[in-house]
Each structure stands twice: as structure tokens, then as C-alpha cells.
Amino acid sequence: MKIAQQRYYLFSLNTNLMFEKAISMFTDQVDRIINSESSSLKKAESGIRLCNRTLSELQHMVEKEDFEDSAAEINFFKNIKPIPMSYLIYFTEVRTCELSIPKAGNNPKIRFLEKEVKKINKFFSQTKDFVNYMEQSHNYMDPQYFTRNNLDYHPFAPTINYYQYPEFSTSHDMLWAMIQAMYKFIHYIREKLQKLQPGNKSLYAEKQPKLLLWSGSKTALVELIYALYADGSLNHGNVEISTIISSFEDFFNTKLDQGYKTYSDIKARKGDRTKYLNQLILKLENKMRRDDGL
Fold first, then answer.
1. Distance (Å, whole) CA 278 – CA 76
2. Are 203 and 193 in contact (CB under 8 A)?
3. Domain spans, the chain
4. Is the per-residue pLDDT at 4 higher than 80?
5. Angle separating helix axes 275-291 and 218-231, nearest 10 degrees
């Protein structure tokens, strides 16, 4: 390998590791905030501080190292920055909602929250083309959307003071973060409405008959859930771990108390930390061999 290629490889590797470390620390901290016993308002305020701090760190990294090529720049503004940015928007919206919602009477609260749902639906209607582009995993417009070569065109102008600097933004990274934030926020709104209107079928699809029962250990199920969460396999990665846990509880007719604590225990294992997932791999491979007559 030539010296110039070696330098490029080491630079790219070092930069990616810095980004990955920052995001890994962020996701651990944001999970702790969301799963804490604090009120929604306190969670939002703690989350806003964490997001601003993380975005400031990422901005400092970009200013110091910048990007070696457009592919690295696209990856950052498409897949890295929108993670804390989306949570900043989400927590800001939650804080605004908690401060603005009527303090007395269920009916005024319900009307307020239903207006929020209409606003979210209107936003998704206005951005449906870009939502489709992202959800279909297209990339042909990425050089225009996720590099800083097209800063003259910003489709999303935030109405509140989100963390945004021209040298740290592209034409669509904020919009993509906003879309991910609204996926989170609609779930928050629906949960609040569900508490005010138990069994509201207009907000939640009717549950399927309870036919499946999780008969493995609850620790194993938590390990599986966090693997799916880490992979971003559900809702394009735009879903809270608490939502996934709740959905699995409904589907498998079980209760996962202290899911985050169980995950912490899994991380603290000595040796094989992904014990259940590794067992699944071995058992599936054995079944395939048996099916093939080997």
C-alpha cells in the first residue's frame, strides 16, 4: 500500500472510530434518560443538554478533521449527525408540549394533543417525497442532500432555536433529523392520549389474538430486542427501545420489568455477552445441516 493510501486509510479509520465512539456514548446516555423514573419534562431537559453537548463535540471533530471525500461527508450528515439532532428536536418538542398542555381537565388536554397529531400529519404530508426517498434507501440524490455544496437551498427552516450552523449543515440533514424526531414524537403523543382515552382504537390498531407465549428466559428476550434495536431493523431505526419492549410484551404476552437494567446486566457479563444470540446462530445452522441431510 502506498504511503498516501496508508495515510488516507488511517485517517478514515480514526475519524470513523471517533464518530462511532461519540454516538455509542450518546445512545447509552439517552437510553438511561428515557428509561429513568424522572418526569417527561425533566427527561426532556436532560436530553436537550445531552444532545447539545454531543452535537458540539461532533462539530468540533468535523472542524478539526473535516472529511477526506464526499462519501465520508454523506455518511456523516446522513447517518451520524441526525441521531443526536433528531433527539434534540424530539426532546424540544416534548418540553414544549409538557409546558403548553392544559393543566386541568381531560377534554382540553385531548383537544390539545389531537391538534399536535394534526400538525405532525401535515408535516409528513408536506415532506412525503423526501420521506419516501429515505425510507426506500435511495442514494442517487445524496450528493445534493447530504454534502455542504448546496447550502443555498434549505427546505426546512426550524421555528425554534435548534442546534444549527451553516458550516455544520447540509440542505437536508436537518429535515431528515426532523422526520426521525416526528416518528418519536408521535409515539409520545399517542401514549399520552392512550392514558387519557384508554382503548382508543383510532390511535392504536386492535391487538391480534393472544396466540404466542414467550417461553424462553426474559433475559434472552431482552438480548434479542436490543440486537434488533442496535441493528435498526424496526421502523428504519426510528423507534425508542421502550416502544420495542412494549410491543414485544404485547406480542408474546409477557412482562419485561426493568428492561434497561437487564440490558446492563447483559453488558456486564464476563466472556460471552451475546450468549442467547450465539445459541440461536448455532441452532439455526444445525437445523440447516439436518434439513440438508448432513
1. 31
2. yes
3. 3-205, 207-294
4. no
5. 90
